[in-house]
């Protein structure tokens, strides 16, 4: 059983003093850039204060499986020092949060993150300033202790006993989440078919809806159920929940506590994701969001590295929804980075993703929503487009750095992480062959 220890200095990879000291050496340069930007934006009647405050408040959670090196079905290239337990995953999240000031929660995946004593885990996380975001069930793999296989599906399976096992697993995940203080269950199903004729589409959907109904009945009243969709993989002919339409239909059948979760990588190339966001936010059904970058499908690459403009357009829809009082409030959305790192240090990649997210959020916050609305109403196509592009082309990095600085995190997290040789310290502590659980 895990018993939380008091923090030993050697266990800490960094300290608030060290961060403050490093920030001091960067402060003059940073402030120079910030004032310069402030002047430019003031000429456009944009006040940077509310923007910085919103950036400070934005928190995006870390999935426990993203703290180790991911891989593909062809191979994996571990870098060492990976977290070996749920506590070490929490410690890495806490470290990341100290550096960025924007990652105060972890999202667990059961059974990758099981423990014999969840109240001790909760206490440990609390001591490290980390909360538990949406908790994920996993019925897309077979687990050592289970009786029935999910080879042919889980909540949609033709056999009642397999469905029962998958339903019970989800209820168990809710139980664990309750002990940790989590408030949402995320269900993503691998269910589907690889070949035409394999599945009866209608029946597979009905069985899934019935199974979800049972889980929904078990959901505590203050919880949300987040339904995630994906067009293909692991099944390549059909997925039972392939798109937002199906996820929304299920959510509507289940009730108000059920919402749709949008994972950026779960769309076919060129899908207009911002429109999906606007649609769901507009009817109060956008409950969760998984950030990542993608060229083709569920690539799980660094957010913002490939399509920053699309990410900006998505944030514009969210900011606009908040501005216009749409039923979905951004503060109710479970934000998470759902990425996997093949060739990078996971912590460095998470820092880059967090920065990429905040940059596009900042860009969207620069938009004069009222002016944009006017241009739209007047069919001023060119001007409306100009408003968006002008915001996107501002270098907002000093605003993001200022938000971090005010959150007592690093002005430049990546350089700090490298200068302090944090990965080397983790390898020394956990070994070169340590492997995190996950994909
Ligand atoms: C899926 C989906 C889920 C995540 C798993 C690991 O593609 O994105 O959110 O839990 O991968
Ligand atoms: Mn996801
Ligand atoms: Mn995915």
Cα radius of gyration in angstroms: 22 Å
Please state the average pLDDT score: 95
Low-confidence stretches: 1-10
CATH class: Alpha Beta
CATH topology: TIM Barrel
Number of helical segments with 4 or more residues: 15
Shape: globular
* Structural domain tally: 1
CATH architecture: Alpha-Beta Barrel
Strand proportion, as a percent range, falls in: 5-15%
Hetero groups in this structure are:
beta-L-rhamnopyranose, manganese (II) ion
> Total number of β-strand segments?
13
Q: Based on helices, strands and strand pairing, what is the structural class?
A: alpha/beta
Largest sheet: 6 strands, parallel
CATH superfamily: Divalent-metal-dependent TIM barrel enzymes
- SSE pattern: HHEEEHEHEEHEEHEEHEHEHEHHHHHH
Terminal residue distance? 25 Å
């Amino acid at each position: 059983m895990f018993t939380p220890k008091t923090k030993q200095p050697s266990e800490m990879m960094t300290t608030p003093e060290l961060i403050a000291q490093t920030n001091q050496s960067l402060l003059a340069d940073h402030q120079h850039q910030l004032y310069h930007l402030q002047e430019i934006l003031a000429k456009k009647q944009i006040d940077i204060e509310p923007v910085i405050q919103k950036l400070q408040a934005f928190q995006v959670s870390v999935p426990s499986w993203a703290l180790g090196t991911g891989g593909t079905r062809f191979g994996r290239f571990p870098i060492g020092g990976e977290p070996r337990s749920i506590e070490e995953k929490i410690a890495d999240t806490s470290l990341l949060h100290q550096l960025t000031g924007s990652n105060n929660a972890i999202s667990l995946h059961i059974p990758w993150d099981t423990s014999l004593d969840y109240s001790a885990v909760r206490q440990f996380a609390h001591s490290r300033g980390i909360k538990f975001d949406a908790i994920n069930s996993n019925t897309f793999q077979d687990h050592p202790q289970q009786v029935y296989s999910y080879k042919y599906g889980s909540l949609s399976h033709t056999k009642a006993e397999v469905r029962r096992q998958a339903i019970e697993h989800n209820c168990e995940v809710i139980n664990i989440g309750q002990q940790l203080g989590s408030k949402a269950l995320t269900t993503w199903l691998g269910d589907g078919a690889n070949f035409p004729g394999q599945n009866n589409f209608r029946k597979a959907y009905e069985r899934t809806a019935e199974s979800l109904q049972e889980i929904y009945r078990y959901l505590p009243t203050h919880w949300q159920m987040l339904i995630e969709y994906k067009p293909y993989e692991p099944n390549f002919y059909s997925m039972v929940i392939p798109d937002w339409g199906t996820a929304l239909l299920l959510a509507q059948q289940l009730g108000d506590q059920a919402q749709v979760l949008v994972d950026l990588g779960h769309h076919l190339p060129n899908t207009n994701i911002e429109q999906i966001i606007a649609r769901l936010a507009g009817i109060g059904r956008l409950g969760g969001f998984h950030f990542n970058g993608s060229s083709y499908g569920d690539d799980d690459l660094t957010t913002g590295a490939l399509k920053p403009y699309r990410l900006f357009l998505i944030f514009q829809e969210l900011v606009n929804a908040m501005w216009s009082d749409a039923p979905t409030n951004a503060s109710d959305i479970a934000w998470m980075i759902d990425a996997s790192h093949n060739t990078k240090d996971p912590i460095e990649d998470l820092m880059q993703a967090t920065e990429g997210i905040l940059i596009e959020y900042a860009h969207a916050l620069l938009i004069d929503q009222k002016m944009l609305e006017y241009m739209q109403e007047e069919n001023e196509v060119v001007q409306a487009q100009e408003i968006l592009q002008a915001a996107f082309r501002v270098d907002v990095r000093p605003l993001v750095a200022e938000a971090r600085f005010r959150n007592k995190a690093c002005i430049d997290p990546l350089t700090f992480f490298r200068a302090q040789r944090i990965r080397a310290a983790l390898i020394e502590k956990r070994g070169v062959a340590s492997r995190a659980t996950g994909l």
